[in-house]
Amino acid sequence: MCRKATHRGTMKSRYDVELVREASVWLSRRVTVNNVWRSGDPRVLAGV
């Protein structure tokens, strides 16, 4: 399905990431995503 250019959706999120160091690399231990706001057609973001 091709979406028309008039279908828009915007979402702003805040990411809180807890990192741990193992040897010479950083790994994500936990990631929390908080959606701050959104606007537009919610169907555009349905697959996200």
Give me the secondary-structure topology.
Elements: E1 9-22, E2 25-40
Antiparallel strand pairs: 1-2
Word description of this protein:
This protein has a domain of 28 residues. Helix content is 0%, strand content 62%. The chain contains no helices and 2 strands. The protein has a two-stranded antiparallel sheet with strand order 1-2. The model has no long low-confidence stretch (mean pLDDT 86).
Helix content: under 10%
Mean pLDDT, nearest integer?
86
- End-to-end Cα distance, whole Å, is 16 Å
Shape: elongated
Concise summary:
The chain is mainly beta. It is 0% helix and 62% strand.
Give the tags.
mainly beta; 48 residues
